[in-house]
Amino acid sequence: MEVKILSAKFDIKDAHMLEVAKQHGAYSQLDKLFSMEPVAVIEEVKNSGLRGRGGAGFPAGLKWSFLPKGLNKPVYLTVNSDESEPATFKDRYILVRDPHMMIEGIIICCYAIGCHDAYIYIRGEYTSQVKALQKAIDEAYAAGYLGEKVAGHDFKLDVTVHRGAGAYICGEETALLESIEGKKGQPRSKPPFPAVEGLYGCPTIINNVQTIASLPYIIENGAAAYKQYGTEKSPGTHLFGISGHVNKPGMYELPLGLPILDVIEKVAGGVLNGKKLKAIIPGGSSTPVQTPEDAKDLTLDYESMAAHKTMFGSGGIVVLDETVDIVKLVENLAQFYHHESCGQCTPCREGLGWILKIVKKILRGDGTSADIDLLVELCDNIEMKTVCVLSAACTMPVRSYLIKFRHEFEAYVKKGASAQANVKQG
Amino acid sequence: MSDRSKLIVTGKPFRFDQERDAEFERLVKRYPTRESMILPALWLTQEQEGWISAEAIAYIADRIGTFASQVFECATFYTMYNLHPMGRNHICICRTLSCWLRGKQEIVDYLKNELGLKPGEIGADGKFSLEEVECLGHCGTAPVVQVNGEFHESMDVDKLKSLLATLK
Ligand SMILES: Cc1cc2nc3c(=O)[nH]c(=O)nc-3n(C[C@H](O)[C@H](O)[C@H](O)COP(=O)(O)O)c2cc1C
Ligand code: FES
């Protein structure tokens, strides 16, 4: 099932070094690139059907075409390397094992959109990764692939790494821009969208590391070659991260469209220690949960995920075996989102805290059935009532657990009630 | 979470050393506004000193030409900036989803016992500090621990024992 498009150089020794990467084709597409018109590059990417790999799946070429034309302002590219959504661990493989593929992707994107200053926003926790990335960038400068004349062509490009410092919210594109501007990571309201008014008030494209790293293949082999992989509406390949209760957790490159249960069984070695499957989180912690029954006909593409009322997200699949206590899992998730709320919007700042408090109350055995209803009501009152979708990233999955595993919440309520009755009798 | 609203006054002046000074000057040319240097300057400070003092905040603000309040706001918002000295070995344990599923609690309990520290605390001798953090992006090799910035994957108590023995 596995394919090697993005991961082609991952297992080659020292492929992170420029000389080795070049022997395997890095930067070989630049002459072809500069012989194309920028609009032709955008057209090729549009035709490839490449969708954003950061979570929302927005078509990359289409996003680029939203940039206003004829504006007398610089255009910026920011590459989103915040990678903080729980269960997501794919981009760092690119940063460490094949950074030159991403740098070449940055050159392609910047040429297409007319950008001369790109920023890579990398999460602060990636300490060794940021060093590896900076080293690759330094090498690219020294070899003339970045700087005043990219590969000898009349095109200037600077690439600067900007380190975050421990805030999940800075993965949200406008919080990321605020952070580069030297502010707290509090998202902006949209519109205006960043393509019109982004970094420093200028038109800005934000793309995920994997989206950008997919570009060299598309330019080299053409849109049609890319579309051979995946499904018609979800073309290409993706670096899936499989974690939780499987025998072989890890990062696997797969074409889109494969049945999720097959992938868990055949690629990830099945449920850990032969236990029974309880549920699957299909695309990172913010995507609604799927029971084994739901997942029977679920495939790894944007359309199937939507039809199952969940999301492809960042491709981070989490497998839960029969021993998982869903109420405790919801506590773990709620704590994450509550902690990571930027504090700007009241429904998110206060509401996520209330979700956490009520779940803790149920776990203590002090909850009632009305508390379970209250949790659902809270989700409804928080979602889409905030500047960004961090709050929805919490309420969408939480609601799915409340609906599909309500009996587990009820069990805590019943156990608590009978324990209290015993105390009174005794 | 520890109190992130207070700064420590050391009574000693702060300034970048030569190496950090050069890095500041290299980076400042890359941004159209000097405010963009706030996060990088906070990182440079932390690299140099291990943490960020009231004097450092004032120095950064002055160096950039912005309000100290804006630097303060960033230093307190972003949780990786240390506002006080940490242990010589700062141990972060991921507490989130995949690490939780794969037994992070055993790691936390062992460290608590062994070091006599709760997450968020710094040992009296300054050798260790312990912290539970959110997903570190290594969920496929859970549970993970990060010590002084270095990742240790697929951890268990045995591996932890050998790791602790190497720390000075
Ligand atoms: C709370 C939140 C966190 C996000 N975190 C990330 C992230 O870590 N990495 C990422 O690429 N996109 C993240 N996104 C999505 C970005 O806002 C944005 O859609 C994406 O970077 C666009 O790139 P793409 O079109 O190439 O996917 C996040 C969004 C939200 C709302
Ligand atoms: S959940 Fe621990 S590293 Fe992601």
Give a nutshell description of this structure.
The complex is a heterodimer of chains A (426) and B (168). With 426 residues, chain A is an alpha/beta fold.
Explain this structure to me?
- The complex is a heterodimer of chains A (426) and B (168).
- Chain A is globular and about 85 Å long.
- Chain A has 426 residues and is an alpha/beta fold.
- In chain A, strand 2 (117-122), helix 7 (127-142) and strand 3 form a beta-alpha-beta unit.
- Chain A has helices at 18-23, 30-35, 38-48, 60-65, 91-97, 99-113, 127-142, 173-180, 209-213, 215-221, 223-227, 260-267, 292-295, 302-307, 326-340, 346-364, 369-382, 390-404, 406-425; strands at residues 76-81, 117-122, 158-163, 204-208, 237-244, 250-255, 277-281, 316-321.
- In chain B, helix 1 (18-28) runs antiparallel to helix 2 and helix 3 (54-64) packs across helix 4 (68-77).
- Classes of the chains: A alpha/beta (426), B alpha+beta (168).
- Bound molecules: flavin mononucleotide and FE2/S2 (inorganic) cluster.
Give the class of chain B from helix and strand content and strand pairing.
Answer: alpha+beta
Overall domain count of chain A: 3
> Regarding CATH, which class of the largest domain in chain A?
Alpha Beta
The biggest beta sheet of chain B reads: 4 strands, mixed
Rg over C-alpha atoms of chain A, rounded to the nearest angstrom? 23 Å
User: What strand order characterises the main sheet of chain A?
Assistant: 3-2-1-4
Overall form of chain B: elongated
Q: Could you give the distance between the termini of chain B?
A: 26 Å
CATH topology description of the largest domain in chain A: Rossmann fold
CATH architecture label of the largest domain in chain B: 3-Layer(aba) Sandwich
Beta strands of chain B, count = 4
Q: What's the CATH class of the largest domain in chain B, please?
A: Alpha Beta
Give the topology string of chain A: H per helix, E per strand: HHHHEHHEHEHEHHHEEHEHHEHHHHH
Order of helices and strands of chain B: HHHHEHHEEEH
